[in-house]
Each structure stands twice: as C-alpha cells, then as structure tokens.
Design a protein that fits this description.
Elements (H helix, E strand, L loop, with lengths): L1 H7 L6 E2 L19 E2 L6 H8 L4 E6 L5 H15 L4 E6 L2 H16 L15 E5 L5 E4 L4 E6 L4 H6 L4 E4 L12 H9 L5 E2 L2 E2 L3 E6 L5 H12 L4 E6 L9 H10 L3 H9 L12 H4 L3 E2 H12 L6 E5 L3 E6 L8 E6 L11 E7 L8 E9 L6 H14 L3 E5 L7 H6 L7 E3 L5 H13 L3 E4 L3 H9 L10 H16 L55
Parallel strand pairs: 1-2, 3-11, 3-12, 4-7, 4-8, 8-11, 13-21, 16-19, 18-21, 19-20
Antiparallel strand pairs: 5-6, 6-7, 9-10, 14-15, 15-18, 16-17, 17-18
Helix pairs in contact: 2-3, 3-4, 14-16
Length: 536
C-alpha cells in the first residue's frame, strides 16, 4: 500500500520531499512553484488494516488520529488494485458518512483540481457524485459508496460487496441503531464471488472511545479469537501531521481530564450509568491504590499481586495486610469463568477509621471457578487466615445458603450468610450513599468493577453483575456494622477508634436502651454518654 499511496496520491511532475515525512506541517518549507510535496506515507496501523488477512477489524481512535482519511486511503487502494471491488462506508447520519467522502475527494484525489493539477490517481477515478448519496467510481468497475444507517437503511440491507466500514460506531445508539444488528446485516452481505474471485468479506468497525458496550465487546474479541479479530487503538498523538498548536487547541477545548483521556488517548470510558453515574463513580476511582500496588510489584515485595484474563481485564488485585488495620471480608460464590455471569468474587476492604476515613478495597479476586465452588472457598479461607477480618460474609441466596454450615463452619471460619433476596434495592441504596460521600475507594485499573457498576440497572436478570452484587452486599455490611453519620471532616484527628469502628467490639452499658425497629428511635430509652460508662 505504501508504494501505491506515495506514487498515486502525488501530483504529476512533482518533487517529493521525503525529509518531511512524519513531521509537523508547521515545520515544512515547501516550494510550491517547484511543485514540491510531502509523500502520503500510511501510518503503521493503516498498513496493518490494508494487509492483514483477518476479516473483522475494530478501530478505536482519538480525535485527529487520521482514521477517516486513513481508512479512506485503504479503500481507494483496494478499489484501484482489484477490479469490480465494492466498498461501503456506513455512518449513523448522512453528514458523518460524507466526512470520508470529502477526505478522499479533497486530500487524496484532489478531484476539483483534476484538470489543472492532476495527480497520478486522476485517470483511475472516473466519477465522484454526491447525489442521491456520495459515490466514487473507478476505471476498473470498482466503487465506494457512502451511506447513512438512518436514511439509507433499506439500501444497506440490499447491498452486497467486498468491504463494509461502520464509521462512528459509538454514536449509532444515539440514532436508535443497534450496532449488533447492523453488524449482522452488513456482515452477511459480503459473500459470493465476482469475476472469478471470492469477495474479500472484511468488516471494519471504527469510532472514538464512546461508551458503546457492543463496540468494546467486539474490540475485546481480539484477545479471545486473535486469529479472526484484529483490534487497533490509535491516539491523537499517534498522528505526526498535527501541529503543536492544533494539539494544544484540542487539549484546551476538552476541559475535563477524564474526557480528554477518553477522546484523545482512546481510554475506555465509564458506562453512562443510570443508577451509578460517572459523576458518582469518578471520585471513588483511586489511582493512588494502583500506584501502591505497582510500587510493591516493582520492588518485588511479598503479598503484592496482579493477574489479568482475556476478555475480563484485571481479575486479581491484591495488597498485603498491615499491622493494626481492620478488615472486612465479603464474597459472592460462583462456578463460572470471568467475565461470564455466575463467576465468583471475593473482596477485602480496609475499614480502619471508617466512616471518618474512607474504606479502601485492598484485595480483589474475580475467580475462575472451572465449574466448581472450591476455588472460591479456598480463596475465602486463605484471606480469612491472612487478613484476620473483624467480620466476614458471603451471599447465601438460593443454593448457596448452606455454605456456612457445610463448608465454612467445618473449617473453623465464622462467616455470616446474607440472603440478598428481598434486600437488594436497600443494598444498592447503601452503596450509592457510601460512594456519594466518597467513603469507599477502589483501584481505578480494575475495569470490571466500574463496568459492572456503571452498567447496572433494573431489571437486572440478564446482567453480568457478580462484582456489583458483591459490592452491594459489602455496602450493606458496612452500614450495619458502623455508625455512618455526618461527622465534620475537621473532627477526623480527634476520633476515638473504639467509638467509630466495629459496633460489636464496643463496650456496652447493660442499662443502655436498644432500638425497637417497629417503634422507631424516639421511643428508645436514653443511653448514657461514654463519659458516664464506668462512673455509674
């Protein structure tokens, strides 16, 4: 492809300036009278798309990364070299589909100046029209068509060809278009043969790093089925032809740092949660916890570990216990393999000083059960012995009800089985309240946590929610064990550990009244203050 683009996209009789390739345009000193030009050299990822044999390609690219003109160049290359080649670019709406057409017309072919300043590609492009929809016709019968999914939906369903590009895939849902359905419909149209050759059958899905579950699920398929899927992550900074001024302008105009990383560095965004919004989750994503773990790993200290799994990301994230700290252990039994439903989860939360100080997730394991409960049981037992938690609990809903008697009690572990049924919405509320006060910090790099929380909704019968359910239960446990009040942050230095930690560990005055859950707080007997206990 590089030999093709450097020659055919060049002006006839021009002088190439190879020294300016992959340099910023604000440093160019071209002599236009001598028809000097910078050869159009494809970027590495564009070459990979053109020459890789895998038929399913997913591209997540930042603003200004060159994805539109780059993929346009790939399509022109295929159409010029292969007779009767048919390509289609599909975008949510018409003006988005026309973006690639304009890039090909103006940047690559320079069609409007084909008579005065022809390029080597000029004789190969027979016609470029915009009505009824943009279309490019080549000398050998090849074509590129540019359509919108909303306006030309029926034409797309009747189309057949070699390559289909779904552009701005992350914005399809804004137009009410289902990416999975569009992938099925277009993917089934690239079949058969023409002129004695089989159709290429390549499907390219690309867009910016918008939150679109189907887009990211397809992107992750390259980890599981790398022989069929190719995924490319391109950033704004990968394009050497952006000037410093242009980069600076983009950075300034995207004021939110999180949004800037998403749109320029192609960082995977949080889901657009309805229950757990990005605004709620964002302050609880703690990069400092990630840094602590990484420092321990770099120093090869005992007790620090991190493991990843294809399709699930980080599934194990562990820091060791420290002396004098208090911990809570919670788990959700399961037998499956992450990221599938019914995968076991175990968590250890440091609660020292809580609620005046934020609780912290210090150990997390999304467990591969291999069809058995035993990996979960063994992990819970190992952490029960390692962290010496002040309280341990597990989800005892349904068939998991007997774990405490059949397993944990026999192994000498005291763990409470919590039946989530009928209490789930209260547990969800407990977690939302704790996160709203930033009283639970969790590692930012464990994407499974944030994907499941951000994507959680009701009804939840078909959701992957093992991690989310474990956190719901953990929040309920924290709410039951600790007095979560609105104590002023300024009083943090004067807190009394006995007064503000585990309820069951406090001294209790035998005359102290107990709350009657049916009658409410105003009917309970007045309890003496802590200063009175011992003097009475």
């Amino acid at each position: 492809m590089a030999a093709f683009t450097t020659h055919y996209f060049a002006p006839v009789g021009g002088t190439p300036r190879w020294d300016l390739v992959e340099t910023s345009p604000d440093t160019w000193d071209l002599d236009f009278e001598a028809i000097e030009y910078v050869p159009w050299v494809p970027l590495a990822w564009q070459l990979a798309v053109a020459h890789d044999n895998r038929l399913d390609v997913t591209i997540i690219a930042g603003f200004g990364s060159g994805k539109t003109s780059g993929i346009g160049a790939v399509l022109v290359y295929w159409c010029s070299m292969i007779p009767n080649f048919k390509a289609m670019d599909v975008a949510p709406v018409g003006w988005q589909a026309k973006q690639m057409y304009d890039a090909v017309r103006q940047e690559l072919v320079d069609y409007d100046n084909r008579h005065d300043r022809p390029r080597h590609i000029t004789p190969m492009v027979v016609k470029m029209v915009e009505r009824p929809y943009p279309k490019i016709t080549f000398w050998n019968g090849s074509t590129i068509e540019f359509m919108s999914a909303d306006e030309q939906g029926q034409k797309i369903l009747s189309w057949s060809g070699d390559v289909a590009v779904i552009d701005e895939a992350g914005k399809l849902s804004d137009s009410g278009i289902d990416l999975d359905e569009l992938t099925i419909n277009l993917g089934s149209r690239m079949r058969g043969q023409i002129g004695g050759r089989p159709r290429m059958g390549k499907l390219i899905v690309m867009g910016t790093a918008d939150y679109e579950p189907a887009l990211w699920e397809r992107f992750d398929m390259a980890d599981e089925l790398s022989q069929y899927y190719m995924s490319i992550l391109a950033t704004t900074y990968d394009n050497p032809y952006l000037t410093k001024a242009q980069l600076g302008a983009i950075e300034r105009r995207i004021k939110d740092p999180e949004r800037r990383r998403q749109l320029m560095l192609s960082e995977r965004p949080l889901p657009k949660g309805k229950e757990f919004t990005p605004e709620l989750l964002g302050p609880c994503r703690c990069a400092e916890l990630d840094a602590i773990l990484q420092s321990g790993l770099d120093s090869k200290l005992a007790g620090y570990s991190k493991e990843e799994m294809r399709g699930a990301g980080i599934v194990k994230w562990v820091t060791p216990p420290t002396e004098f700290d208090h911990y809570v252990l919670v788990g959700d039994p399961g037998q499956n393999t992450p990221p599938n439903r019914n995968s076991a989860v175990a968590m250890v939360i440091r609660v020292t000083g809580f609620p005046l100080r934020a609780a912290e997730l210090v150990a997390f394991h999304w467990i591969d059960g291999h069809g058995s409960y035993w990996p979960f049981i063994e992990q819970m037992e190992a952490w029960w012995k390692l962290y010496h938690p002040i309280y341990s609990a597990f989800d005892a809903t349904g068939v998991q009800k007997g774990f405490d008697e059949l397993v944990f009690a026999q192994r000498g572990m005291l763990m409470e089985g919590i039946n989530v049924q009928g209490q789930k919405m209260q547990m969800v509320l407990a977690l939302k309240l704790i996160l709203g006060k930033q009283k639970l910090l969790m590692p930012k790099e464990v994407q499974g946590i944030w994907m499941q929380l951000g994507g959680w909704r009701m009804p939840d019968t078909k959701l992957r929610q093992d991690i989310a359910s474990c956190l719901f239960m953990a929040a309920s446990v924290l709410n039951r064990l600790f007095v979560i009040d609105e104590t002023d942050e300024e009083e943090e230095e004067e807190y009394e550990p006995v007064r503000h930690t585990y309820r069951a560990a406090r001294r209790r005055n035998p005359r102290e009244g107990r709350r009657n859950p049916r009658r409410g707080a105003k009917h309970e007997r007045k309890a003496p203050s802590y200063s009175d206990v011992g003097s009475s």
